[in-house]
Every structure is written in C-alpha cells, then in structure tokens.
C-alpha cells in the first residue's frame, strides 16, 4: 500500500510521518503522541478533535493527514501548558467549566480561534464560536463565562 | 486509497481521469464517508490548495464564486452580504465554525443533499454551475444541476469550478430562513430563500429556492410565476406560498413529517415574501 511522507510543525516542533492516503490528521497526530487531540465522533459533529491548521480552527478528523503536509498545527498543548496556562485554560478551571475534561482541549482551541479574531466577543459571539463543540458534563454556561472572563483578562 | 495533490486545475483534471478518482477539498463530507465505508475511492485528488478556485467577484453582471470558497469566506464577504443576503444568511446558519472553515460551496452542491443549505439561496438568485473537463467547459443552470437524490449533472472527469448568481442590485429584495431542530450543527427541516427584483411596485423577476422539501433542492416555478409582473401584495404572496406548497414533495424522516414540511414550506415562503416586500411580521 502506498505511503506518503508528510512533514508539518506541531506546536512549533517539526514532525514527520509516513501516512496512508485515508489516514486522518486526527489519527496521525495521536500516533505521533499528541493524544491531547481527542477521538470522539470522527464525523465533524463534536469538536473534540479541534486543532488550529495554519491558524484556522478545524476538526482534525475531517482532514486527510496528507493534506496537512507543510502546515502549522497547534493543539491545546501549544496554547498553554501546565506550567504556563493560557488565560482561556486558567479561567475554564477557575470558573468550573471542566468536569471530565474530554471536550476541553477542543473547546480551548475553538475559544482561542474565536478570541484571535474577536477580542471583544459578545456572549452570543461566544456561544456561536463554540457551536461546534459538544460538552456532555457542564451544560456550557460556565464554559461561556470562562471564555468571557479570559477575553476580558486578555484585553488587560 | 491513494492520494495525489493537484497543483493546478489542469493537473486536477488529468488526475480525475483515473478510475475511482474523487476530488477532496474541505473533506467535511468525503473524509467521514470514506472512514465509515459509505464511499470508496481509488485515489483522492486533493484540490484544496488551488487558490485560483477560491474567489468571490463581480463579473459581467454576475457574482462569481469559486468552488473552493469556504462557507467562512462567504460569511465574511462584504460583496455577498450586499448582493446575495440569503447566501450570507445561509452561511451564518451553516453547521458550526469548525466545519465552516473547511466546507466549500462546491462540496455542498456536489454532495447534493436535499437539504444542502447553500442551494436555496443560489437557486433563488438564478444560480449557474460552471464545470470544466479536459475537453472544455460548460454551464448548467442550478435547477438543472440537481438530477435526483444526491445526484448531480457532473460527469466523470469533470471539475465544478465556480457557481455564479444574479446580484440583488438596488432594485432587489430578499429573505432567507432555515428551520432546524437546534441553533447550530443541524440539518435543515425546511429552508427557503426568496429574491425579488422590483420595478416600482411591480415585481419584474422572482426567485424562490427551497430545501428539504423534495429529493433535490429546487425552485418553485409556479410560485415565481404567481409573482412575476404583479405587485407583491397579500393576495399575490398568498398565491405564491400556496403554489410553493403544491410543488413541495417532502418525505417523513427523523427530523419531521412530510405533512409538517409541506405546511412549513407554505409558512416560510409567505413569511419570507412578506419580509422581502417590507410587510410587517404576522
């Protein structure tokens, strides 16, 4: 079976992989050790696998890995780390917007993309910005409050 | 499945001649279809980086949209907002932000779901598909492009390059609405778009596009005829909405019954015509 050599940067680090045509970016990222990108619906419905691809928030399950050759990919770990949390991450924790934590990486990516484009989102903007991310635990309210608080903190 | 990335339209057309070739751009339909075995392809021809197919322009009295234009692109376009407000509104309601960043107008039309969200607005504004093959190009009016359930007029080896529509212009009035069971990430229960081109109090041209009320996205020729050459008053609106309902042939499915869809088709068309005509909401 044909394999394709792809190289891309993940959170600033150059990575390479030998992928099949049908392998998705989600599965290849996880094979590379980036298990913070979550496997959930694999149909583009839940947002758990959201990553930034050349700065745009996308579902990694909807991208063939071969399509991402040469791209810049950012996962939640590229947005903030345990030692250096991004305001979005810290506010989600402080506002009680995390329970099981499974949706959280995708939420952080979607929220980062939202705030990158709109530093002063209305509550409705925040709801729309997270419309592609499902959460089974929190009921969303505290996630929205967290992102509103992060936006305010980032505006200084 | 093999993979090849096309670096030009010509390369894409060449690669598409291989048996079992499928174009991939945003992948929002194709990738999960492949993963879940609903579709198979011998080779995916990746056209996602063909910048020459991603544009929105006004040319020779039409608005032309490249097939690789994403739904986010449509949403962010001042030209679309001004000249094709129903298309802008449809892009606003489309799926969610993560999908919008990848889904393309070409992909939505070629997927040819009866509920394809971008279709009714394009139909209402006289949409036309531009196709190209190694043998040359052709144009197909959008209402003739949808042949049947998930079946379009595209031929093997052909690439959908662009879609064009008639701009609203200063004399145009329009409206759009999508009935859905959630506020996002939802397939339409019924959707509709209306566009009216006025000359004084008279409607010169009308376009009424409907989604999820037939095996294909469709125009209601009878509803349009009820408006053409007449003032857009209560009686004309009532007649057009009733005509649209007659032409609707929806099915029962998990989202709604055929009876509900037929009823809502009339409600939506009446509501949108009133809105376009500047009559108060009832």
Assembly status: heterodimer
Runs of chain B in which pLDDT lies below 50 for 5 or more consecutive residues are none
By DSSP (H or I, 4+ residues per run), the number of helices of chain B equals: 12
CATH topology of the domain at 172-277 in chain B: Enolase-like, domain 1
Total beta strands of chain B: 14
Which superfamily, in CATH terms, is the homologous superfamily of the largest domain in chain A?
Answer: [2Fe-2S]-binding domain
CATH fold annotation of the largest domain in chain A: DNA polymerase, domain 1
What structural class do helix, strand and pairing data of chain A support?
alpha+beta
User: Span between N and C termini of chain B?
Assistant: 54 Å
Give a structural overview:
The complex is a heterodimer of chains A (156) and B (282). Chain A has six helices and five strands, in the order E-E-H-E-E-E-H-H-H-H-H. Chain A has helices at 25-31, 76-79, 87-94, 104-117, 123-129, 141-155, and strands at residues 4-10, 13-19, 50-53, 56-59, 72-74. In chain A, strands 2-1-5-3-4 form a five-stranded mixed β-sheet. In chain A, strand 1 (4-10) and strand 2 form a beta hairpin. The longest helix of chain A has 15 residues, at 141-155. Chain B is an alpha+beta fold and 282 residues long. Among the domains of chain B are: 1-47, Uridine Diphospho-n-acetylenolpyruvylglucosamine Reductase, domain 2 (2-Layer Sandwich); 172-277, Enolase-like, domain 1 (2-Layer Sandwich), CATH 3.30.390.50. Helices cover 34% and strands 27% of the residues of chain B. Chain B has twelve helices and 14 strands. In chain B, helix 10 (221-227) runs antiparallel to helix 11 (234-247) and helix 11 packs antiparallel against helix 12 (258-277). The radius of gyration of chain B is 19 Å and the shape is globular. The interface between A and B is medium-sized, with 31 and 28 residues.
């Amino acid at each position: 079976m044909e394999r394709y050599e792809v190289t891309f940067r993940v959170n600033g680090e150059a990575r390479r992989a030998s992928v099949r045509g049908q392998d998705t970016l989600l599965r290849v990222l996880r094979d590379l050790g980036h298990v913070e990108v979550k496997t959930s619906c694999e149909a583009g419905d839940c947002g758990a696998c959201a990553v930034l691809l050349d700065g745009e928030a996308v579902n990694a399950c909807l991208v063939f890995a071969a399509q991402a050759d040469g791209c810049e990919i950012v996962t939640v770990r590229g947005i903030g780390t345990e030692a250096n949390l991004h305001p979005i991450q810290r506010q989600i924790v402080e506002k009680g917007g995390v329970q099981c934590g499974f949706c959280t990486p995708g939420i952080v990516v979607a929220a980062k993309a939202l705030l990158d484009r709109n530093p002063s989102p209305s509550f409705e903007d925040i709801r729309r910005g997270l419309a592609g991310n499902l959460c089974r635990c929190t009921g969303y309210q505290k996630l929205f409050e967290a992102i509103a608080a992060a936006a305010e903190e980032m505006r200084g | 499945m093999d993979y090849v990335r096309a670096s030009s339209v010509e390369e894409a057309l060449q690669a598409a001649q291989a048996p079992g070739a499928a174009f991939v751009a945003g992948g929002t339909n194709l990738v999960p279809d492949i993963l879940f075995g609903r579709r198979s392809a011998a080779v995916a021809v990746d056209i996602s980086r063909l910048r020459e197919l991603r544009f929105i322009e006004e040319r020779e009295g039409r608005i032309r949209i490249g097939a690789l234009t994403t739904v986010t692109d449509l949403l962010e376009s001042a030209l679309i907002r001004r000249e094709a407000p129903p298309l802008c509104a449809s892009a606003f309601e489309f799926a969610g932000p993560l999908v919008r960043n990848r889904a393309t107008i070409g992909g939505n039309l070629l997927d040819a779901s009866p509920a394809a969200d971008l279709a009714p607005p394009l139909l209402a504004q006289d949409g036309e598909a531009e196709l190209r093959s190694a043998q040359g190009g052709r144009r197909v009016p959008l209402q003739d492009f949808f042949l049947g359930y998930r079946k379009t007029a595209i031929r093997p080896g052909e690439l959908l390059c662009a879609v064009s529509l008639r701009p609203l212009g200063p004399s145009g009035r329009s409206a759009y609405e999508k009935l859905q069971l959630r506020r996002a990430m939802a397939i339409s229960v019924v959707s509709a778009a209306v566009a009216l081109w006025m000359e004084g109090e008279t409607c010169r041209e009308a376009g009424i596009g409907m989604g999820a009320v037939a095996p294909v996205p469709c125009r209601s020729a009878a509803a349009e005829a009820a408006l053409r050459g007449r003032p857009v008053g209560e009686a004309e609106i009532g007649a057009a909405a009733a005509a649209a309902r007659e032409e609707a042939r929806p099915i029962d499915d998990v989202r709604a019954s055929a009876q509900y869809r037929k009823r809502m088709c009339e409600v939506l068309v009446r509501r949108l015509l009133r809105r376009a005509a500047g009559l108060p909401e009832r």
